[in-house]
Amino acid sequence: MDTLKVRDAKDVEEVVRAAIANEQPLEIIGHGSKRGIGHAMATNAVLDVSALNAITAYEPNELIVTLQAGAPLADVLSLIDAKNQQFAFEPMNTAPLLGTPVSGTIGGMIAAGLAGPRRIKAGGARDHLLGAHAVSGFGDSFKTGGKVVKNVTGYDLCKLLAGSWGTLSVMTEVTLKVMPKPEAERTLLLRGLDDAAANKAMTAALGSPFDVSGAAHLPTSAFRTRIEGLGDIAGQGEALTVLRLEGITASAAHRAGSLRELLAPFGTATLVEDVASAALWATIRDVLPFAADGALGAWPVWRIVCPPASGAALGTVLARETGGDVIYDWGGGLIWAALPPKPDAHGPAVRERTNAAGGHAMLIRAAEDIRRTIDVFHPQAPGLAALSERVRASFDPKTILNRGRLTRGAAA
Amino acid sequence: MAIMMPASDQAVLARRAEIVAALRAIVPGEGVIDSAAEMRAYESDGLTAYRQPPMVVVLPDTTEQVSLVLKYCAGQGIKVVPRGSGTSLSGGALPLEDGVLLGLGKFKRIREIDFDNRAVVTEPGVTNLAISQAVAHAGFYYAPDPSSQIACSIGGNVAENSGGVHCLKYGMTTNNVLGCEIVLMSGEILRIGGKSAENSGYDLMGVITGSEGLLGVITEITVRILQKPETARALMVGFAQVEAAGECVARIIGAGIIPGGMEMMDKPAIHAAEAFVHAGYPLDVEALLIIELDGPKIEVDELITRVETIANACGSTTCQISTSEAERNLFWAGRKAAFPAVGRISPDYLCMDGTIPRGALPKALARIRELSEKYQLGCANVFHAGDGNLHPLILYDANKPGEIERAEAFGADILRACVEFGGVLTGEHGVGIEKRDLMPEMFSEIDLNQQQRLKCAFDAQGLLNPGKVFPTLHRCAELGRMHVHAGKLAFPDIPRF
Ligand SMILES: Cc1cc2nc3c(=O)[nH]c(=O)nc-3n(C[C@H](O)[C@H](O)[C@H](O)COP(=O)(O)OP(=O)(O)OC[C@H]3O[C@@H](n4cnc5c(N)ncnc54)[C@H](O)[C@@H]3O)c2cc1C
Ligand SMILES: Cc1cc2nc3c(=O)[nH]c(=O)nc-3n(C[C@H](O)[C@H](O)[C@H](O)COP(=O)(O)OP(=O)(O)OC[C@H]3O[C@@H](n4cnc5c(N)ncnc54)[C@H](O)[C@@H]3O)c2cc1C
Fold first, then answer.
1. Residue B52 near residue B5, CB atoms below 8 Å
2. Do A14 and B258 touch (CB under 8 A)?
3. Cβ separation A160–B172 shorter than 8 A
4. Which atom of ligand 2 has the smallest separation from the CA of B83?
């Protein structure tokens, strides 16, 4: 298969135009770290944007960074870290979960749109993408949005590009919002709660004025795999409910105290700070209990998003019915479910239960043969699916970009 | 009118009586208004320089009625303009002579308050403030707070992606909505999202937010609510130069502090506001910053000290710190009343809304001063300094021949300057008709065509709110045409592996 390593936006236009003329669909990759997600594609050439890797402009006082889409995430993170800034949506590193080498580009991060624990407070990738230059499936470069945080000029196409898995346009340059890193973080730990009680504790915390920036629950089963870096936090392997407070030191400490009082009915919370707290949240963000090289590495993994207060009910039923393990983030609104291997990855049960809870489920890790029989992305109601398809076609009428990635069978 | 609207469809106008009757069959009783006198209330929105009575006003009160009205209009090729409370400052809700004005004013019910999921499900005609009031007893509020919040509808907020003084820290409407029910021009009713943090598939909620009534009619919205911060305090800081105030803003952000609000006023705005509300604003300064810190008391107290130190280092000439709620509200009173205050010193004013990179502030204000000279019109500036959103208020007198035209030309030059300095045409008020013809300053034809193709995915006939946002209208078939670039059948000369 041809891999075309584009050098600039003009190259991208030319490749896409040639692909249109040849009716030859393209796979779009950054570093290709997430190629294992989604459906097999009917593409016979690869458009590789990783050489579009310049950092165009970084203006810490404006809280923005402009980058070419192939810029390595690791470089960008260290650049902004040096100015004590971060992407507030805490994008996850999928490498441990998927068992792929640690790499990745900014374009891939946005196209996948997988936000971490801070999503409940700071939003997702879609909330931080301010502007983009991209090449549509018409082979034309266009821009949308701008380079300022406040902008309502024209439709906000950035929202569509974030989480589009490369099926609408090839991003060539993006402007992202950056935010100051909090001075301090404090995490309260509650031990031994069952899922339902943990959900209640998280709901109470998130409904408090203490500005909680992370609320997760690791049931006992999550500790089947020994996790490096957690140290004492893992304790005796009891279930662990964790709540994060960030900000200036005095404030984080003060709110931790107030929240501990509020949560007294759920037990006596202990506290971890800064480095230990960060390691814990990286574990949750990257779903390390289900890491590819851990005890459940061979199990398919679902990523389920639902109304937060119904998380425990949904997760408990799924775990019981399938014999699987679950982890809760976003106060119950995000469930990671590792389910015992089965040819359909328990797809019908997961989808039925998730629909009933008003959520949606994505099969983020599964062998290719399973992905051939089960929809990776949650099927939408017919009217919405038809509108989504019209929206997709408005960017890429010939389905040149990542044909088949989002829809099973579409590759044929 | 300086702005051309799409030509009226005479065939539709000729059938007005029949159309009114058909709409009455869908929305009975007082829900259809066709008398000239009663329609007058709907002939303009907050951009009052433009007026146009609609063909007929329809005020449905159920989603089914909205669906039937749209389906009927789609079948008959009749244009439709949605309207919330009519406070748009960009003319988004300006009626069309041959169009149905679809008012959502009867959708006034909050359908569900769900504290556990921190969400409110509401009808679109509910005012922004009413949502906060409905959840206040439990300590919650809805964060985006446009100054028009007593009047503007949440549906209009979604359509305009409205902001407010607190959006630097808490985001605009788009960052605070979870889902909606929307009726397409075809009459099809769709549900997007719900109480989950994010939706599956493409982020349609994201693109509907800020779509200015061109993609669909919103009939229900699910918004995110937050707990009110424990406390808030404000600083009022005066500077002898605008540059110093701009530097102060940059250093606060640079120090990693994101205030709840950070507003700036220039000398004419300070004077107008002080004369109106007597907030105790210093009159001998060139720029005034109001900086609000919110959160737990211990945090607010510490940040106030840090901000004060920064302000001093930037050469502030006055610095007052609120010690009570009454005093904090007083600091804000002048800023919040800035528009009416300016209304008192000038018969008419135009409110502009560009955004610039924060660092370009001194340059932008200098340019506005030059333009003010050139056009011989006064201008007062209020500014969401934290996020670079500028609101120049251009003073004019509509009764003096030529002044409105001069004011509009002045405004257009300001917006061009915003784009020149790396900013955008509108930060929160929307494009509407007001900035429609300036869109090419920011976007190429290709950029605009891509946006219009998206419109086609929602409304292929182009019947919903035409004449807004886009300077030229293209047929969907024309936009969808693919130009196959002949003679390039092989992949070009690009490195392969
Ligand atoms: C130190 C370090 C820390 C990391 N931390 C994080 C982190 O915090 N967050 C995080 O997300 N990742 C992190 N990663 C990497 C992460 O695992 C992903 O690899 C990365 O975000 C995805 O980029 P990719 O280029 O490999 O994606 P790919 O697998 O190449 O692409 C993912 C999807 O995006 C599409 N796509 C890629 N580029 C474009 C484009 N230009 N335009 C349109 N569509 C495109 C693809 O078609 C595909 O659908 C980290 C990596 C390192 C080295
Ligand atoms: C004094 C004053 C102060 C203001 N301050 C601010 C401010 O601080 N920040 C800010 O952002 N704005 C501000 N505005 C502008 C205005 O209030 C907002 O744009 C507001 O969101 C408009 O809401 P509305 O209900 O009045 O909408 P309308 O004016 O009725 O309509 C606005 C647009 O939305 C569309 N629309 C309305 N309802 C729907 C619906 N249900 N479905 C689909 N489309 C719909 C209309 O077609 C139109 O294009 C201010 C206005 C005034 C007059």
1. yes
2. no
3. no
4. 30
Min distance B256 CA to chain A CA atoms (Å)? 5
Taking the centre of ligand 2 as the mean of its atom positions, its distance from the CA of residue B391, in whole angstroms, is 16
Are B75 and B115 found together in one domain? no
Which residues make Cβ contacts (< 8 Å) with residue B429, sequence separation at least 6?
Answer: A152, B88, B89, B90, B160, B351, B353
- Considering the domain architecture, whether residues A341 and A234 belong to the same structural domain is answered as no
The string of pLDDT tens digits covering residues A293-324 is 999 999 999 999 999 999 999 999 999 999 99
Contacts of A40 (CB under 8 A, 6+ apart): A368, A371, A372, A404, A411
> Residue A411 above 60 pLDDT?
no
Find the mean pLDDT for residues B75-81: 98
Tell me the Ramachandran region of residue A63: left when phi exceeds 0, alpha when psi lies from -120 to 50, beta otherwise. Answer: left
pLDDT at B336: 87
**Pairwise CB contact (< 8 Å): B495 & A21:** no
Specify the amino acid at residue B324: S
B192, A384 in Cβ contact below 8 A?
yes
- Are the beta carbons of A153 and B209 separated by less than 8 Å? no
The reply to whether residue B439 touches residue A206, judged by beta carbons under 8 angstroms, is no
| Residue B363 tokens, joined | 């340059």
Same domain, B234 and B214: no
Residue A214 to residue A235: CA distance in whole angstroms: 20
Reported confidence tier of residue B484, pLDDT bands at 50, 70, 90:
low
Q: Are B233 and B293 in contact (CB under 8 A)?
A: yes
Residue of B135, B198, B418 to mutate, interface with A, max A Cβ within 10 Å: B198
Residues A166 and A214 in one domain: no
User: Which residue in the set A163, A305, A390 is minimally distant from B203, CB to CB?
Assistant: A163
Checking if the pLDDT of A410 tops 70, the result is no
For residue B384, give every residue at least 6 positions away whose Cβ sits within 8 Å of its Cβ, in sequence order, or none.
Answer: A150, B163, B165, B167, B168, B261, B262, B263, B390, B391, B427
Same domain, A57 and A128: yes
Judgement on whether residues B220 and B234 belong to the same structural domain of the protein: no
Q: Which of B70, B87, B89 to mutate to test the pocket of ligand 2 (most atoms within 8 A of CB)?
A: B87
Task: Output the domain CATH number for residue B331.
Answer: 3.30.70.2190
On whether both A67 and A173 belong to a single domain, the answer is: yes
Q: Is B228 exposed, middle or buried (0-12, 13-18, 19+ CB in 10 A)?
A: middle
In a domain, A2, yes or no: no
Instruction: Please name the residues between 280 and 299 in chain B that touch chain A, using a CB distance below 8 Å.
Output: 295-296, 298-299
By alpha-carbon position, which residue is closest to atom 7 of ligand 2?
Answer: B146
* Reported pTM: 0.95
CA of residue B265 to ligand 2 center, whole Å: 23
Q: If we measure between CA atoms, which residue out of B112, B161, B74, B100 comes closest to residue B426?
A: B161
- Do residues A65 and A155 share a domain? yes
d(CA A227, CA A225): 6
C-alpha B287, offset from chain centre: 25
Residue to substitute from A47, A83, A155, interface B, most B β-carbons within 10 A: A155
Nearest chain B alpha carbon to A86 = B256
Are B145 and B212 in a shared domain?
A: yes
Chain A (83-112) residues lying within 8 Å, Cβ to Cβ, of chain B = 84
| Total number of domains in chain B | 4
Identify which of A141, A143, A307 has the shortest CB distance to residue B117: A307
Pair B116, B22 in one domain: no
pLDDT, average across residues B116-126:
98
Instruction: Write out pLDDT tens, residues B13-58.
Output: 999 999 999 999 999 989 999 999 999 999 999 998 899 999 999 9
State the first-to-last Cα distance of chain B, in angstroms, to the nearest integer: 59
Question: Which residue stretches of A287-376 are H helix?
Answer: 311-322, 347-356, 368-373
CA closest to B138 among chain A residues: A207
Beta carbons within 10 angstroms of residue A261's beta carbon: 8
